[in-house]
Amino acid sequence: FEWGVISFVIDDDKFEDFIHEKASWLGNAATNSLFLIKKSIDYGTQTPLNIGLQFEQMGYAINSQSKDVAEGVSAFLEKRAPEFQGK
């Protein structure tokens, strides 16, 4: 845990519930944000650090203008679950 390599330790009998919970979370997340996160990680591991950081900054700039980000902020301020549209 202290190295940050392992995030969870799950008992065998709770594994399926844990997986369903994580899959549900992913299914309800902002798809464009998840896409940009994945691309940033993939791109960042294949390029020099400065190029990877530029790509991440570009993704952040694009994503910060999305309707899903506005929905996420509104939902947070209103203390409700967000309803992302993938836009």
From TrEMBL:
Transmembrane segments: none annotated. Gene3D superfamilies: Lyase 2-enoyl-coa Hydratase, Chain A, domain 2 (1.10.12.10). GO terms for molecular function: hydro-lyase activity. Keywords: Lyase. The keyword Lyase applies. Coiled coil: none annotated. Belongs to the enoyl-CoA hydratase/isomerase family. This is Enoyl-CoA hydratase.
